[in-house]
Design brief:
heterodimer; A: mainly alpha; D-Maltodextrin-Binding Protein, domain 2; 2 domains; 17 helices; 5% strand; B: alpha/beta; Rossmann fold; Alpha-Beta Plaits; six-stranded mixed sheet; four-stranded antiparallel sheet; 10 helices; 14 strands; elongated; disordered C terminus
């Protein structure tokens, strides 16, 4: 029996590997990813910091002895008034000019009139002026600059886990996030391909011929396994291309991170998540006549895996909170949320076990329901079944 | 008996009974026709025979070389479905490898047989073509090859001739007959009654999930096809239509009468009983054709007088 399942899996893999669209997708996706993920970083590397020039109309005469070194902001003292400063800024295409009025030391208020908007420049000037203001006022109180620095210094907090706390390190988090991406990729990319494969087999009227040779559960299992392997193959290919890029661009210790992640847990929940949702997708695919005729109910079912998204933010904020605990045990959200929690906090063993058992049972139940729907749906031609009909199929005692 | 033995199989879907306790046999070396109008339960019956769905009740046995199997082993079934299609983007040879591979045939054997069959149908140059590049008739031949490549002992052909040109039809007919001669049990479903009449040794008629009739073509014609007499005359033929051997008659034209003879009345006896005074200008006697029997069954008997024009009536009480 397993041999027949494997033949189907092989066929699904070979059919896709021979398919132009699949190959184009395989090659183009990393290019697109490179463009979207890599390019901004590369551009940032090549992008020289822009020099900002501000003219300063300083009625207090205090700016020159501020003593601040400014990396990309150049201050030029303008000896004339505001009107001539504006003309100079226009002529020299400077960023703008700063007016420090005589009242500045009392009010602390200054104004920047800009020709080119630049938030960074404003921020730098503000810190310069703050410094000038503080120094001027310190002089009034006979305090020296060292004392000022001493008084206004900021605290610095380092967060460190206790040695026996067994909290995952930051590399583990990256692996956790990568695993979540993996779950979503497998579910949505492979899941959609799986659904289409069931649909296509129905549309090409091959379901009956194949089912005259093997059982429907073998066919369904073969499809699920085949598309899982295809998904892994795709990812493997992309990783092979992408890993050197990631190491070069992000300077990230990949092997170290993999070693520090909880791999058995990740593998279990990635697999469990894929099996759960692929069963749903393949079952749904079998109820449809074509993709266009997918009804609202089918659309809703396809959205089920997205539920995890709702919980990501609350779980990151409070990984040990009640929402995180429930979402990491509830089987529909658990594949994503458990991987995530395990990456950022120490999940109690009983919760991991409860979540694993719940997911395992759900996979079996949903798998059986999907098999029943698949068996009837694959042999039904001519229309897309509605929810009522699908419920009716599920109630048939013996469909086989 | 070697071959397929169907005993009282039944299948319900919810409240609807798709197949209602039907029984028939398909013998090895014979071609058995399974006929019935659309929705009669043929597809459900075929699916049960192939083991795609299980009957709610009843038994399916398959006997081969002295062994009787409960149900037909999947490796022994070859199936050509009515609605044809193949994996469109796949190559001909790959599809044949895949489908015969599912029947556990060795790769080298598949290749050899595939090439022989493709050559037989003049498709040897298309082995590596994609299915979508083939014409409809070519694809149909490929699918026929796929259904028999593993040398099945039970071959189920659903509308094998639809869409084929007359030359290809003859090739198919010859191949199907040859497969039967080699000992395969063949179940053939078709709406082309002339071909069924020509090819089938036995016929099983099904309507609304129930058996209507089962027997050889001749037996069925004898059972349902009472003799039909068409008479042309210039004057009224009251003395003919009122003969005791006439079951009923009607007059579709002013000079034309259609008479249906009673069960068991032979043509010679009827002719001998016609009074010499009758002014008949033309007369023909023939059995109801399989086509007409089928139409009659599909309509659930004949209720409308106009049907008699083309579809002479038989004993429709039995069909109701």
């Amino acid at each position: 029996m397993m041999r027949q399942t494997w033949k189907i899996a092989q066929w699904e893999i070979m059919r896709n590997l021979r398919n132009k669209q699949f190959i184009i997708g395989l090659l183009i996706t990393p290019l697109i990813m490179l463009v979207f993920a890599g390019l901004p970083r590369l551009l940032e590397r090549w992008n020289e910091p822009q020099m900002l020039t501000y003219y300063v109309v300083d009625e207090t005469q205090s700016i020159m002895d501020s003593g601040l070194t400014l990396s990309n902001v150049e201050l030029k003292i303008h000896t004339g008034g505001s009107d001539s400063a504006e003309a100079v800024v226009r002529d020299t295409d400077a960023t703008g000019y700063l007016v420090i009025s005589a009242e500045f030391l009392k009010t602390g208020e200054a104004s920047i009139i800009y020709q080119h908007r630049n938030h960074e420049g404003v921020a730098v000037l503000q810190s310069v002026l703050t410094n000038v203001l503080q120094q001027a006022r310190v002089q009034e109180t006979d305090m020296d600059r060292e004392q000022l620095v001493y008084l206004t210094s900021e605290s610095s907090v380092v967060a460190m886990a206790m040695e026996d706390a067994d909290v995952p390190d930051s590399h583990g988090i990256v692996v956790g996030i990568a695993s979540i991406v993996l779950v979503f990729f497998l579910v949505f990319s492979s899941g959609t391909m799986l659904m289409q494969s069931a649909l296509q087999e129905k549309r090409d009227r091959m379901a009956e011929v194949v089912l005259s040779s093997i059982s429907s559960s073998n066919l369904m299992q073969g499809k699920i396994i085949g598309h899982f392997l295809l998904g892994i193959l795709q990812l493997g290919f992309w990783l092979l291309l992408g890993l050197p890029a990631v190491i070069y661009l992000l300077d990230f210790p990949v092997l170290e991170a993999l070693a520090s992640a909880n791999l058995p847990l990740i593998i279990f929940f990635v697999l469990g998540g894929y099996l759960l949702f692929s069963a749903v997708f393949v079952g749904i695919g079998a109820t449809m006549e074509d993709l266009q005729s997918a009804g609202n109910s089918q659309g809703l079912v396809i959205m089920i895996p997205m539920m995890s998204f709702l919980f990501i933010a609350p779980v990151v904020q409070n990984p040990d909170g009640i929402i995180a605990q429930v979402a990491s045990i509830f089987p529909i959200t658990s594949p994503v949320i458990m991987i995530m929690r395990a990456a950022i906090t120490r999940v109690p063993m009983w919760q991991i076990m409860a979540s694993a058992v719940a997911l395992g049972i759900t996979v079996v139940i949903i798998g059986m329901m999907a098999a029943k729907i698949f068996r009837i749906g694959m042999l039904m031609y001519g229309k897309t079944a509605d929810m009522g009909e699908i419920m009716k199929w599920l109630r048939y005692k013996d469909v086989g | 008996m070697e071959g397929l033995d169907i005993k009282q199989i039944r299948k319900e879907y919810g409240a609807k009974c798709a197949v209602d306790s039907i029984s028939f046999q398909a013998r090895a070396g014979e071609i058995t026709g399974i006929l019935g109008p659309n929705g009669a339960g043929k597809t459900t019956a075929i699916r049960m025979i192939m083991g795609i769905t299980a009957p709610d009740d009843g038994e399916i046995q398959f006997s081969l070389n002295g062994t009787t199997y409960p149900g037909v082993p999947k490796s022994m079934v070859g199936y050509l479905p009515e609605e044809r299609g193949l994996y469109k983007e796949a190559r001909v040879i790959d599809v044949l490898f895949f489908l015969a591979g599912l029947k556990n045939v060795d790769k080298a054997v598949i290749k050899e047989r595939a090439m022989t069959w493709l050559a037989k149908f003049g498709l040897e140059d298309y082995a590596t073509s994609k299915i979508e590049q083939l014409s409809k008739g070519m694809a149909q031949k490929v699918q026929f090859i796929a259904s028999i490549l593993h040398q099945p002992k039970l071959i189920i052909l659903d509308e094998p001739f639809s869409g084929l040109d007359p030359v290809s039809q003859d090739v198919f007919k010859a191949e199907i007959r040859e497969l039967a001669n080699q000992g395969a049990t063949i179940l053939l479903s078709s709406h082309q009654m002339n071909i069924v009449e020509e090819l089938c040794d036995r016929i099983f008629l099904i309507h609304q999930g129930r058996e209507v009739s089962y027997g050889t073509v001749q037996e069925i014609k004898e059972q349902y096809g009472n003799y039909r007499v068409i008479v042309w005359a210039h004057q009224d033929i009251h003395e003919v239509v009122s003969l005791p051997s006439v079951a009923h008659y009607n007059q579709p034209g002013s000079k034309r009468w259609v008479l249906t003879l009673k069960d068991g009345v032979r043509p010679a006896d009827f002719l001998a009983s016609i009074p010499s005074t009758a002014t008949i200008s033309e007369l023909s006697i023939a059995r109801m054709s399989l086509h007409d029997i089928f139409v009659k069954i599909a309509q659930g008997g004949i209720n409308d007088e106009t049907d008699l024009e083309d579809s002479p009536m038989g004993n429709h009480a039995e069909l109701a």
